[in-house]
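Dear Dr. L.,

I hope this message finds you well. Following up on our conversation about the binding site, I have prepared a predicted three-dimensional model of the protein together with zinc ion. For your records, I am including the exact sequence and ligand specification that went into the calculation, followed by the structure tokens. Please feel free to forward this to your student if that is useful.
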Amino acid sequence: MDGSCLCRGIKLRIDAKPEALHVCHCIDCRQFTGAIAAFLLPVPRDKMTVTGYPSGYANTSDGGVTVKRFFCGNCGSSLYDVGGQEPNMYYVQAGLFPPRTLPAPGKEIFLRSAEAWTIRYPGCKVSQTEVKQLVDP
Ligand SMILES: [Zn+2]
Ligand SMILES: [Zn+2]
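The resulting structure of the complex is given below.
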């Protein structure tokens, strides 16, 4: 799969098709993306190639671990994060990839900060907090 930021200065190539999206409602994802949830592709770090020079910002996440988030310093697109619960994975912003190429959501996390009027996606495991606490809805 090939994706890019809005200005196309940064390109992302994923060599494995992810099986499902993660939907994350955490406060950090809200502020990082400017949207009320992040739709993320989980990708092993050795399966993604980044071309260009992303900017990065690290903080302690809603889940209590240090997460570094990368973005395009030119156009501002949110790109991916690394260093959360599964440090060998990139969590890549799904909207960087072309329409109709994405798998359906499989996990929804940090529901404790989801807007009350949002609807749950069918077939997703859910968690009020982090991915380690997933349960059937
Ligand atoms: Zn850009
Ligand atoms: Zn999040």
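In brief: The two ends are 30 Å apart (CA to CA).

With kind regards,
A. P.
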